[in-house]
Structures are given as structure tokens and as C-alpha cells.
Specification:
mainly alpha; two-stranded antiparallel ribbon; Zinc finger CGNR domain-containing protein; ABATE; binds zinc ion
């Protein structure tokens, strides 16, 4: 499964690396190499970092703390103190170094800097009273995203990830329902003699 960067914030995207959290959770960060790939694919983070096992464990702990706080925010309940401590402590570390050139933006830093930046991004969005955090409308998804759309009318974390899947499933269900209805319909009733056009 590919990583999705649809949450509008790297901290929420990190939290989204566990999908289907309530039913059958799938962890997309199974090993340090997965974390290295996630960092490389995230636009706001350095292109290349190495993750040892201790740093990997810190990243997972930060991820779960961010998810818990985001869920607290979605459910409009007080933040979990243990998760607050993890995120706040991580945010005190060194930040990535950014440099502008004709080639564009260059971001440098190690995994510690990556986690600091991610924690700070998480704090910024969780502290913003105007940030509209939502859980994806597809029940199995459980991804939390920042809805920046006008009037906050977004329903899905992403169209490719969930919106199109839900729409395709609804379309298939409608097709099935109408096929069944045709099968049972007046055309399929008895008494026409030949019966070659019957449903069976
Ligand atoms: Zn989703």
C-alpha cells in the first residue's frame, strides 16, 4: 500500500500511516526502512534520512501521540496528558535547515529534526481553533485530515484513497439493486406463454 499525503499536515499524514485503526489496523511503517521512505516522500521533510531502531520507535510513539490528540480534537474532549507530553517534548528538538536556491527549496536534517518538525506541525494544527479536523467519511479509513475547503464541506480524506472507492461501491450497490428489481419486476411475471424472455 502506498503512503498518502492527503491530510493537509505532515503530523496528520504520519498518524495516517496506520489505516483502518478501529477494525483491522494496517501499519504501513513496519520497519525503519518504511519510515525512511515515508520521510523521503513527504514534501515538507528532507529527501534522505536514516532511521535506526531507537529513532524508529520514537517516531511510532510520536505518531500514536499525534493520532490520540487529533482524535481528542475531533471528539471535542480534553487532550490526553501522556500524548501531550510526548508531542511537546519532541517539539523542543532541533529543526530541519531550509535553504532557497534557483533549484527551489532544499530541506536538510536527520530523523530527530524530522520528528521535531512533525511534532511542531502537529501542535500548530491542534492549537488552531479555526482548523477543521475531521475523520474520513469512509468508515474503514479512520484517517483524520484538515478540511480547508470553503464551508468545510469535504467528506473524504482523499478522492483516490476513499471518495472514489465509496462512490464506486455505491454505484455497484445501485446496479445490483436495480438488476434484482428488474428480475422481480412485472416483465418477469407469469402467464405470457412462451416465457423465453423470463428472468431465468
Ligand atoms: Zn479516507
Amino acid at each position: 500500500m502506498n503512503f498518502a499525503f492527503v491530510s493537509g499536515n505532515p503530523a496528520l499524514d504520519l498518524a495516517g500511516t496506520v489505516v483502518s485503526r478501529r477494525d483491522e489496523p494496517v501499519d504501513l511503517l513496519a520497519a525503519p526502512a518504511d519510515l525512511e521512505r515515508w520521510v523521503a516522500e513527504c514534501d515538507e521533510l528532507p529527501d534522505r534520512v536514516t532511521a535506526d531502531f531507537a529513532a524508529f520507535e520514537s517516531a511510532l510513539s510520536l505518531r500514536e501521540a499525534i493520532y490520540r490528540l487529533a482524535l481528542d480534537r475531533v471528539l471535542d474532549r480534553p487532550f490526553d496528558p501522556g500524548s501531550l507530553k510526548i508531542v511537546n517534548d519532541t517539539a523542543t528538538g532541533p529543526v530541519p535547515v531550509i535553504k532557497l536556491s534557483d533549484a527551489g527549496l532544499h530541506i536538510a536534517g536527520d530523523l530527530l529534526a524530522v520528528l521535531t518538525h512533525t511534532a511542531r506541525s502537529g501542535i500548530a494544527v491542534l492549537a488552531d481553533p479555526h482548523a477543521c479536523l475531521k475523520e474520513c467519511g469512509r468508515t474503514d479509513c479512520t484517517r483524520i485530515y484538515l478540511d480547508r475547503s470553503r464551508g468545510a464541506r469535504r467528506t473524504w480524506c482523499g478522492m483516490d484513497e476513499c471518495g472514489n472507492r465509496v462512490k464506486a461501491a455505491a454505484y455497484r450497490a445501485r446496479r445490483r439493486a436495480s438488476t434484482t428489481a428488474e428480475g422481480r419486476g412485472p416483465g418477469g411475471t407469469t402467464g405470457r406463454g412462451g416465457g423465453s424472455s423470463g428472468p431465468h
